[in-house]
Amino acid sequence: MSVPIYGLDKELAEKAAAKYDPQREAEAREWIEAVVGEKLASDSLQESLKDGVVLVKLANKTVPGFNGKPNASKMPFKQMENIGQFLQALDKVGVPKAEQFQTVDLFEGKNMNQVVDSIFALSRHAVKSGFGGPLLGPKLHEKREVAFTPEQLQSGKNVIGLQMGFNGGANASGVSFGGRREIGGQDPGKRS
Question: What is the extent of the structural domain holding 121?
Fold first, then answer.
């Protein structure tokens, strides 16, 4: 049974629901099932992940050196500890805080968009860290250093761009300076 929400919470929930993409959820679900090797228990992604057990298993498979211990207890604080372990794994693999969800986003179903985004981010960062499994979404960019020779740097200084040296025939005629307009080089208030 869900608790009715009102006011700003209701508006935010409606806005999040309007942006929610079921296709991305389905992709995340398929990826989780493929990596963990088991079907999720519920048709609801939130219900399947809420206890954090699957998330800890997912982190153990994708994050090098992570060895989380999922707790199968039905007590809410134990379930939140599992979610916390998953968030620690996201930190360890390098997922930026801005791409991570908060525990309540999943546990209370407040922001499932962010949960799905975090799963996509885990996939990208895990593959970059050496995870050999499937990739969910686009690959992270790889930093590529470019080195120029001194001759190449010098030749770049000798280029005159189109924006330099041409004013398109513009001049200062009819331009106002300090609240007065000069016409023909004279101040109209000072005629001789």
Answer: 20-128
